[in-house]
Automatic annotation (TrEMBL), chain A:
Lineage of source species: Bacteria, Pseudomonadati, Pseudomonadota, Gammaproteobacteria, Oceanospirillales
Protein name per the record: Putative DNA-binding domain-containing protein
Domain Putative DNA-binding: 35-129
Matches recorded under Pfam families: DUF2063 (PF09836)
Domain of life: Bacteria
Automatic annotation (TrEMBL), chain B:
Matches recorded under InterPro entries: MbnB/TglH/ChrH, Xyl_isomerase-like_sf
Descriptive protein name: Uncharacterized protein
One family name in Pfam for this protein: MbnB_TglH_ChrH
Top-level division of the source organism's lineage: Bacteria
UniProt cross-references to NCBIfam families, sorted A to Z: PRK05409.1
Coiled-coil annotated residue ranges, if any: none
Record organism: Pokkaliibacter plantistimulans
Amino acid sequence: MSQTLPATDLPWPTASVRTEQTHERCDTPTLAEQQRWLLERVLLGPQANTRLVEERIQGSAALSAAQRLAIYQEGYRLRLLECLQAEFPALHVCLGESLFRLFAIGYLEQQPSRHYSLYQLGEGFADFLSRTRPAGSGLPADTAAQLLLPEQLARLERAQARALRAMGTEQREADTGRPDHWLSWPVLELPDTSQLVDVNFDLLDYLQQTDRYLLAQQQGEQQDKPPLPAVTSQSLLVYRHQYRVNVVRLEPWQATMVRQLQQGQPCDWSRFAAALGLAESELLSRLHLWLARAAAQSMVVVLPS
Amino acid sequence: MSAFPSCSLPATPPPSPGFGVGLRSCHFPWLERHLLPQQSGVDWFEAITENYLDHYGYARRMLFRLREHYPIVLHGVSLSIGASEPLDAAYLHKLRQLASELQPAWISDHLCWTGMLGINSHDLLPLPLTRESLDHVCARVQQVQDYLSRPLVLENPSTYFCFQQNEYHEWEFLAELVRRSGCQLLVDVNNIYVSSVNLGFDPQQYLAGLPLQAVAQCHLAGPSDMGTHLIDTHDQPVPTAVWRLYQQLISACERPVATLLEWDARIPDFPELVAELNLAREVLQGHIPQREMAVAASSLSTPVAASVGRELHIAEPLS
């Protein structure tokens, strides 16, 4: 029996995984051949099993070779699905079990983990959802807009996961603080724990609702699933303060400034004020009012000037 | 120069730190309030290595706070010592860096492989137990030991199949690996039991074949009964059969062995976990709990999602 597997099912170039004759021959396979064969079987799942399973794996009356292999094949999917669900709980609530599973399995098939840490597993999930989003042409505008929801929610939850682990400001409070004085432009830096996420939905409220919903579920209480979020533009800043991850909505001028910092660019305050249509003194005043809270909460770092 | 030349006798395992549990993030709030050993009731912790590599958040802070009061062991799942590809240099570099900062009592991982072609299955996949594999793993253990400047401690995984081409039983493979590489052993008695049921060997024969002088640690956990086989789910109390094996192992070693309880799904509150751990002390006094193994609530071996979830997003604010 021989089969050529469709390229879309494979996480590496088609030429390297072709037929049973090449990789499933059974004349004393080397360690590398055995491992490659087993990894292919695990990634492709039980539907790709062939008669050579019995030639490579010992079965028994209680459990056939294919059933034994299936324990690893099913375990692989279940384990990684569980991890994605743990990292994207609001997306899981939003999509529901079957749709989330469909997207997650598709993601794992296209982009199997290439990192030693499971924390990296969700890194490309939002982009995958974006790439696989149906074209909105021909759909009513509001329906087309709703198609953006999964990827934006995924991007927001991934930002939260990053903020949890990134180098924060907890160990560097001593050399940072508030601006030297209220009349000067501050030198700002965005810590690795802060990330701006622009969305087209009221995701701040939705995240809070899903947290409450999931907590109620954990405690065995009945609660209705949160309704889908309203369509509205938001710039959300995910940040960490004293090891606790938070999300806050930014005003447009704050978002513009944070976006610039996120791109590693220093703020050109004169141009920035002109672009916003504000007098520099007005911008300076707004900035210092915001920084009093933003710096204290580790959203941004004020560097010594 | 190699600190652990090939064919040397295994270094004597370090003294037992006593009875410990696997460090899990859901227990951090409780441990914040019961930080000291006399408050927590455990002697030491085992931390999953990969959860702390590249991590600069609350979990790392807790790990290092606990380290001030407890011995900590780093237990890895992604070293992939048996993979036919080169060792992951970035992983090893970060592991050495973490070990340098944390000063763990020892570093352990599994006799398995996790992937190839750059892909990580995040599962502990079985090795063909052949001469080729033994040569390969011996060489890699020595590379790792040289790089980390310490003996590597390797755990027997739970297994659901054997390769037709196997030339060794697992205990024979481990004994030869210890003899040739100088590595030490983490004997998971739950895994021995799970594999013995699944593969049909005698667990007594397994214990009798192990080089007990190289045993640095043992693991306890509760598997699930799937009817036709057992799954290493770590989601329930330790069954009688596993307690018996534990008693036999410690008796055969004729010395205290570091004992660790693993629990990775449906994790109980910390005091309940400690109560289960304390049964190990009673087992060594001859009191073996009588328990049936539960029918499976889950079919997922070694669940890991609890460690990547968002529970810390909603953790209590730190004082």
